[in-house]
Amino acid sequence: MIRMKIVVADYQNQKHADEVVRLTDMYAQDPMGMDGPLPNATKIRLIDKLKELPHVFTLLAMKDDSAIGIANCFIGFSTFEAQKLINIHDLAVDPEWRGVGVGKQLLRGVQKKAKKLDCCRITLEVRSDNPAKDLYERFGFDTGETEMLFLTKELY
Questions:
Q1: Within a 13 Å sphere around the CA of 6, how many CA atoms are in the beta-carbon half?
Q2: Per-residue pLDDT of the chain (156 residues; tens, 9 = 90+)
């Protein structure tokens, strides 16, 4: 495992903000993302929009002065447990750093934050053909007794 530091991104910090946009765009370009870059308008407004949301945080995996991985997370609520939960909306690692434990460290960071916030669970959606699915299963995520589908409907 490589030496890195997991930090909560400070959206007010220009370096962090730039890394959040860069890594989110990198993930969007991956076949497991959108298989194409974020639109320029999205890149321009991403940080401002994240700043508006009180229940969002981003973890960055920092190697020296560069971010090599990202976890964009949203704090939600489980009505069945009457407790907060964390949904990992995006988890991505720079292709040059995949396979060396960056994703695992990001997941540990999310888990640490979830415990600190007294959350009942961590959720994420993953494509069945995503190679990272094995990492998530080794980390303790499972499909449960019933396989779940993640359906989408575009509104524009």
A1: 21
A2: 789 999 999 999 999 999 999 999 999 999 989 999 999 999 999 999 999 999 999 999 999 999 999 999 999 999 999 999 999 999 999 999 999 999 999 999 999 999 999 999 999 988 888 888 888 888 988 877 777 667 666 667
How far is it, in rounded angstroms, from Cα 57 to Cα 153? 25
Q: What is the pTM of this model?
A: 0.92
Quote the CA–CA distance of 13 and 79 in Å, as a whole number. 35
> Which residue spans within 5-103 are E strands per DSSP?
5-8, 56-63, 66-78, 83-93
Nearest partner of 16 among 72, 64, 60, judged by Cα: 60
